[in-house]
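Q: My labmate handed me this sequence with no annotations at all. I'd like to see what the chain might look like in three dimensions before we decide whether it's worth expressing. Could you predict it?
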Amino acid sequence: MAKTVTKKPAPRRRSKAKAATASPKRSRPSPKPAKKARSKAASASGRIDNSKSAADALIGLLESPLVADILAAGAAAALAAFTSSRVSRRREGGSKQALKNAAKAAATAMGARISEEIEEILESAKSAKRGAR
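A: Here is what I predict for the chain of 133 residues:
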């Protein structure tokens, strides 16, 4: 079965009178200027420095004493939960369940430590607010 070809209608031509009164074509807006590189003073003033990679940011976060304390609490709780479970190699799935329990204990301990820190921050903020009055 052959496909029938249809012709497109011829474009309409404008008369000279209409072409003269037609509005001129709008020109494109000029492109935005390139962003300037941030200076060292901008990064020192607390603005985010884009030159740092995600790995640098993660290392900086891990060097924080608060994060180290929270991770230590989680690791201690996980180790305690893992050693308290009696895992025999004969029993199937015993080590898997012990590992899950250790992870739950670590998450619970870390959550408790974070909530303690938040409570301390809120209490110190309230006492500072009272002292300012």
